[in-house]
Design brief:
Layout lengths: L1 E5 L3 H27 L5 H21 L8 E5 L3 E6 L2 E6 L5 E5 L7 E8 L2 E8 L2 H26 L1
Antiparallel strand pairs: 1-2, 2-3, 3-4, 5-6, 6-7
């Protein structure tokens, strides 16, 4: 079994929440100004205020997604387990649709593995951990391609 931990920064998550609340309040204030008649160009200003407020709500809501918190990945022989702050999700290798290795220009600095399982996407970053990335990618591709080959043979 291979285990890998992805640490997320709590300060970044909180900063995005505060920014979302600020943008929502600022957008609401702009709407108040334009609808109360204190500013000209009512329609254009109201649209801008509504867009700013909506973006603030978007930022705030998306900071509660499970990929914004620390995640532990466990890659076993028959299944992959994703442990996040809401609990854990277990995927068999049959459930995984695609495994992609993203290799930048200088692969010794960082690498990324993108795993798609149904509607969920997991992006696993590896900073200065090329060996761990290669080991996990080889493990995943061996399991996922084995299942796909078995399906192709059965379907003929």
């Amino acid at each position: 079994m291979i285990r890998y931990h992805v640490k997320r920064n709590k300060k970044s998550r909180n900063t995005l929440r505060y920014l979302g609340v600020f943008l929502f309040v600022f957008g609401a204030f702009l709407l108040y100004l334009f609808f109360s008649g204190m500013a000209s160009s009512h329609l254009f200003g109201a649209i801008i205020g509504a867009l700013i407020g909506a973006y603030g709500v978007y930022l705030f809501i998306h900071t509660f997604e499970e990929d914004k918190y620390d995640i532990d990945y466990e890659f076993g022989d028959t299944e992959m387990t994703v442990k996040h702050y809401r609990g854990e999700t277990v995927y068999s290798y049959d459930d995984i649709d695609d495994v992609t290795l993203v290799v930048p220009e200088n692969e010794m600095i960082y690498s990324l593995i993108l795993i798609r399982a149904g509607k969920k996407k997991y992006l696993i970053p590896f900073s200065y951990k090329k060996d761990a990335c290669d080991q996990i990618y080889a493990h995943l591709t061996a399991r996922v391609t084995e299942k796909r080959l078995e399906e192709e043979i059965r379907n003929g």
